[in-house]
Structure formats: structure tokens, C-alpha cells
């Protein structure tokens, strides 16, 4: 059992919410097939070479002589690797080309803008639906991600859906993908972009088409007025402390574009680009100590400028935005 543990650990990396070996779509499936062919082919060649090495050391002299013959050297040392590498190169180029071919004339456009250190996600085809640090997709429909950066070079990667794509200031790169299964996947920035690069993740949520339309309709709705005094106090604190200068809340006077849109922040799976779970306690902790939790991000810590009851009211109101 102990000897099998490394194998079990290795096999554990073949499935999960962030692995290219558990494809959720056609593009990821092509990449996974290419990966397995290279893995298995490399192991077969390694075993073959080790076998030949053992033969050269242990076989009788008459048999060892075969390995030094002109025909074996030419066949095994020149012809075999040349043909093998040429075939793999041609096939991998074909896979790369297939990954760029469009599958639909009218994909759903989604704009993803990378910032230090979070993701802005916009849906121009759905009436300017805007969210942050979450990518919502309809199952079975091709989407085209328009990838850009507002500051430095970033790179977007959802391993279960596609390969990596750089996000470069002043340029829009396009990545087409189709999710074939519903569920939740994890994505990550894979280009070092500064101090908090490791805490720049996001969640990808794949819905059934009807659920996706309902989600989009909910995102377009304005935020409802506070339903009780505690929520009203929290909303007032949002304005008093200038949060609306950076953040937007749909249906209110606050339309800031410098920081994540908070219109439905209470429904999101995480805070601070995957750094924290999302609930009232972490919302309050993030507001009070953003620079302690994620040093170098653009949000200041408000711990010294907001009293405890007011902070909890603000966090309660934000949690109610679902």
C-alpha cells in the first residue's frame, strides 16, 4: 500500500476543478489527448532505451555486437528519432490549428480584462452584464473570450476548458471554447504579474442554457432598496466612506469603474480573486484589512476609519446583494 501511494497521488492529478487531464470541452479534450500521447510515448521510448542499455551491459558479446552495427546505429539513432519527431510535430501542429478554428458564426462574446490583481468580466451581448472574478458560461454554446489587460502582462488559464492565453496591454487576444459539462472550475493567472500574482484566481461556472439566461437576467436587474434598517445603514456607510468612487452598484448613483462591480457581490463564490470565501465575516475582514490580507492590491484598509457596528452593517448589506 505504501509503495502504491505515489501512484495514487499522481492519478489524483488527473481529475478535479483545475487540471488539463479532465477535459470539459472539445478544445481541452484535444490538449489532453496530445498530452497523453506525449506522456505514454515518452515512457515507452524510455523503457526501450533502458532495455537496450541493459542488453548492451548484460547480453553475451555476440549479441552486444548487434547494437554496434551500422544498420542499428542508422536505424535506431537516425531514422527512428527523425521519423518519430516529424510525425509528432506534424500531428501537434494539426492539433494547434484545430484549437484556433471557429465552431460557430455567432459565439457569445465575453470580455475579460485582467488587472492587478483581479478580473473584470463583461458580457456585451447580454446587455452589459458585468461581474468580477467569475466567468459564467452556458453549457454547449461556443463563447469567444476577448482578453485584454489594463496594466501589465497577465495570462488566463482554465485548464479543464482550454490552454493558456496571454493578456497584453493595448492588444485584444481571442480565445474560443465550448464547455460540455455543468459545474464549477478554477482558473488562474499564469503569467507573473506582481506581488499578488499567486492570489489572482477566478471561478468558472458552467450553467445549463436556461439557468444561464436566468443568471444573466438577474445580473441586469437594479439592486433593490434596503429591506430593513440594518441594510439601510450598511448602504449609507457604502456612500459615506466613498466606496462608490471605485465600485459600481447597478441601479444606484455609484458607478465607479476602477474596482470590481459589486451589484451581485453576495452571490459570488469568493472574494479578492479567490483569496477568501464569501460571507459576511470575510467581507468585513476584507474591508477592514485588505492590505493585510492581500498586500499591494489597490484597495486600502478601512479598519481605522470605520467603527465595528457600521462595518458589520456594510458587510451585511453587501452580502445581501445577490
- Low-confidence segments, given as residue ranges, are none
Shape: elongated
The CATH C-level class name of the largest domain: Mainly Beta
CATH topology of the largest domain: Immunoglobulin-like
Order of helices and strands: HHHHEEEEEEEEEEHHEEHH
Computed Rg? 26 Å
DSSP summary, beta strand count: 12
Largest sheet: 5 strands, mixed
Beta-strand percentage? 15-25%
Number of domains: 3
Provide the residue-averaged pLDDT. Answer: 91
Number of helices: 8
What is the H level of CATH, i.e. the homologous superfamily of the largest domain? Cupredoxins -  blue copper proteins
Structural class: alpha+beta
* Helix percentage: 40-55%
Q: How would you describe the overall organization of this protein?
A:
By secondary structure, the chain is an alpha+beta fold. It folds into three domains: 84 residues, no CATH class; 113 residues, Sandwich (Immunoglobulin-like), CATH 2.60.40; 91 residues, Cupredoxins -  blue copper proteins (Immunoglobulin-like), CATH 2.60.40.420. Helix content is 40%, strand content 19%. It is built from eight helices and twelve strands. The strands form three sheets. Strands 3-2-1-5-8 form a five-stranded mixed beta sheet. Strands 4-10-9-6-7 form a five-stranded mixed beta sheet. It has a two-stranded antiparallel sheet with strand order 11-12. The protein is elongated and about 95 Å long. The model has no long low-confidence stretch (mean pLDDT 91).
Structural descriptors:
19% strand, 3 domains, Immunoglobulin-like, 40% helix, elongated, alpha+beta, 12 strands
Amino acid at each position: 500500500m505504501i509503495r502504491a501511494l505515489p501512484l495514487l497521488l499522481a492519478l489524483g492529478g488527473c481529475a478535479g476543478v483545475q487540471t488539463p487531464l479532465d477535459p470539459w470541452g472539445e478544445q481541452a479534450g484535444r490538449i489532453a489527448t496530445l498530452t497523453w500521447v506525449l506522456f505514454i510515448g515518452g515512457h515507452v521510448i524510455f523503457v526501450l532505451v533502458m532495455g537496450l542499455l541493459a542488453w548492451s551491459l548484460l547480453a553475451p558479446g555476440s549479441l552486444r555486437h548487434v547494437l554496434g552495427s551500422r544498420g542499428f546505429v542508422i536505424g535506431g539513432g537516425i531514422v527512428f528519432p527523425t521519423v518519430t519527431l516529424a510525425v509528432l510535430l506534424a500531428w501537434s501542429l494539426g492539433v494547434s490549428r484545430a484549437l484556433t478554428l471557429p465552431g460557430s458564426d455567432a459565439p457569445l462574446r465575453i470580455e475579460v480584462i485582467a488587472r492587478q490583481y483581479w478580473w473584470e468580466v463583461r458580457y456585451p451581448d447580454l446587455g452589459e452584464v458585468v461581474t468580477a472574478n467569475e466567468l459564467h458560461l452556458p453549457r454547449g454554446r461556443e463563447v469567444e473570450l476577448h482578453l485584454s489587460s489594463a496594466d501589465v502582462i497577465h495570462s488566463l488559464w482554465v485548464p479543464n476548458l482550454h490552454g493558456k492565453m496571454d493578456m497584453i496591454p493595448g492588444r485584444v487576444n481571442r480565445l474560443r471554447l465550448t464547455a460540455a459539462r455543468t459545474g464549477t472550475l478554477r482558473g488562474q493567472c499564469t503569467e507573473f504579474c506582481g506581488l499578488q500574482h499567486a492570489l489572482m484566481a477566478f471561478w468558472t461556472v458552467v450553467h445549463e442554457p436556461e439557468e444561464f439566461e436566468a443568471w444573466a437576467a438577474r445580473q441586469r436587474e437594479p439592486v433593490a432598496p434596503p429591506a430593513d434598517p440594518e441594510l439601510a445603514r450598511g448602504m449609507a456607510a457604502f456612500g459615506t466612506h466613498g466606496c462608490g468612487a471605485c465600485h459600481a452598484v447597478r441601479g444606484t448613483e455609484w458607478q465607479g469603474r476602477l474596482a470590481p462591480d459589486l451589484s451581485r457581490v453576495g452571490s459570488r463564490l469568493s472574494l479578492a480573486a479567490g483569496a477568501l470565501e464569501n460571507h459576511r465575516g470575510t467581507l468585513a475582514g476584507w474591508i477592514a484589512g485588505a492590505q493585510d490580507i492581500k498586500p499591494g492590491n489597490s484597495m486600502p484598509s478601512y479598519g481605522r476609519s470605520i467603527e465595528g457596528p457600521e462595518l458589520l452593517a456594510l458587510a451585511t448589506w453587501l452580502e445581501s446583494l445577490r
